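Progress note, sequence design subtask.
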């Protein structure tokens, strides 16, 4: 019997060895042998399992506070360390896996609890799973015909977001776009079309000189949108902000009366640097008085509307004609996930549709209102909705609320820790450089107006704790103690 057991062990080791050799030989083959190649099943499964193992190891490492946030190298050094050049001949699957590992080795661990740089931080496991699923489905959001479930999920999620904003029965319209800058440009495009619909066919020569208004602390995308739409950056009038970074309504009204035809006002809910919330009610009153489109750029701070404790900062948002809201920021949905929400139903369609008969046929056998592609500027549009929808199912609204409340609590904790701290005069650029070279934590810096460089702290990572805030403060002091 002992001999029999021994023989089984030998057989077992022999089979394992054969399997290892088989897997090794599979990985030495080239991508051309993967599915849909004939007999590519085993090669494909082996390769993808190896990729998943690499990803899972990286995920685990990302949440380990003992690991670096970044393994920093200067650009020339990083170019020399690895061969990133593209070749004429295909490499082996083993080489492809090496490339995957190298890419992640030098990637910034944005999921790391001590990553506080701009702006999308954290890594949600359900959101990650949703991202994998949408990449596997690899479909396009332009018609119900090719993306039936995803189109319906976008419909119900946008409706829910409009309800949360406060629009009656969630009525209105909206779309997910590649980011907040594009969402803001959509809003400007709609405002111009609403006031001067002839501009769609006849161009800017058919309309008077227009003026858009936004805070001096607003995001640069407002000017970028004006440049892209032919309105011009000089037609974007910057409104003064008070000491806390909020737009001054009196200055807005004064400048509306001064010059060109006012057509668009963008208030900011969560400014880029100070995180300030413009006084939406007062701004809304002015927009109504002068019949100007009222847009709220809530790309950063819009998610606070999910919190019963903090949504007062967005009082008046329900009066907006359009709202930008980026769940890939405060709600930690994987990039990219930005929504533009519009009060007036049908306006996006009228503004953007081109009636492409090869795509948006009018004799289809289903409700054509679900073919959303003609109201978008894009033709091909990525499926961004599934990440948000699946996370919402997993967390519920109360889960997002708790996550947002925690981020605000950490922000207040940081403020209270440093406001009375002795000797806390920071030299941001030098400390930032040392921070990246050590790789222990990461936070951005910048000047603002007459204020010299200061650290711009972003807290949106669900993994961050009070201890991580303490570590950041102590690390800044350690790295700058000789300055």
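Output:
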């Amino acid at each position: 019997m002992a001999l029999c057991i021994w023989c089984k062990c030998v057989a077992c080791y022999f089979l394992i060895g054969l399997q290892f050799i088989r897997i090794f030989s599979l990985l030495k083959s080239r991508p051309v042998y993967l599915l849909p190649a004939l007999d590519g099943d085993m090669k494909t499964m082996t390769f993808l399992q190896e990729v998943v193992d690499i990803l899972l190891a990286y995920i685990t490492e990302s949440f380990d506070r003992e690991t670096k946030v970044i393994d920093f190298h200067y650009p020339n050094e990083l170019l020399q360390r690895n061969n990133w050049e593209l070749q004429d001949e295909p490499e082996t699957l083993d080489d492809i896996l090496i490339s995957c590992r190298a890419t992640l080795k030098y990637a910034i661990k944005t999921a790391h609890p001590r990553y506080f740089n701009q702006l999308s931080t954290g890594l949600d496991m359900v959101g990650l799973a949703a991202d994998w699923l949408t990449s596997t489905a690899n479909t396009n959001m332009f018609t119900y015909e090719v993306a039936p479930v995803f189109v319906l999920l976008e419909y119900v999620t946008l409706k829910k977001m409009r309800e949360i904003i406060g629009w009656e029965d969630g009525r209105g319209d909206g779309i997910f776009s590649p980011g907040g800058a594009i969402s803001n440009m959509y809003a400007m495009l709609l405002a111009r079309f609403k006031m001067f619909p002839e501009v769609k066919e006849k161009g800017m020569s058919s309309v008077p000189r227009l003026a858009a208004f936004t805070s001096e602390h607003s995001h640069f995308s407002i000017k970028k949108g004006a440049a892209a739409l032919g309105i011009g950056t000089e037609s974007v009038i910057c409104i003064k902000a008070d000491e806390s970074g909020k737009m001054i309504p009196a200055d807005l009204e004064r400048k509306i009366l001064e010059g060109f035809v006012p057509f668009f006002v963008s208030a900011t809910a969560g400014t880029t640097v100070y995180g300030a919330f413009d006084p939406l009610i007062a701004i809304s009153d002015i927009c109504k008085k002068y019949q100007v489109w009222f847009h709220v750029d809530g790309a950063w701070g819009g998610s606070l509307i999910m919190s019963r404790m903090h949504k007062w900062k967005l009082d008046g948002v329900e009066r907006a004609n359009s709202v930008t809201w980026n769940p890939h920021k405060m709600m930690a949905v994987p990039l990219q996930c930005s929504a533009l929400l519009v009060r007036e139903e049908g306006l996006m369609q009228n503004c953007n549709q081109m009636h492409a008969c090869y795509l948006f046929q009018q004799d289809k056998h289903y409700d054509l209102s679900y073919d959303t592609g003609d109201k978008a500027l894009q033709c091909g549009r990525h499926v961004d909705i599934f990440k948000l929808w699946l996370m919402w199912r997993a967390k519920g609204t109360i889960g997002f609320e708790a996550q947002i409340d925690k981020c605000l609590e950490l922000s207040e904790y940081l403020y209270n820790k440093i406001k009375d701290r002795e000797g806390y005069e920071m030299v941001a650029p030098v400390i930032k450089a040392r921070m990246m070279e050590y790789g222990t934590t990461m936070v951005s810096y910048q000047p603002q107006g007459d204020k010299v460089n200061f650290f711009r702290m972003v807290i949106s990572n669900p993994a961050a704790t009070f201890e991580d805030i303490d570590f950041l403060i102590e690390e800044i002091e350690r790295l700058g103690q000789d300055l």
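The chain has three domains: 22-109, 132-389, 399-479. Work on this subtask will continue into the next period as scheduled.
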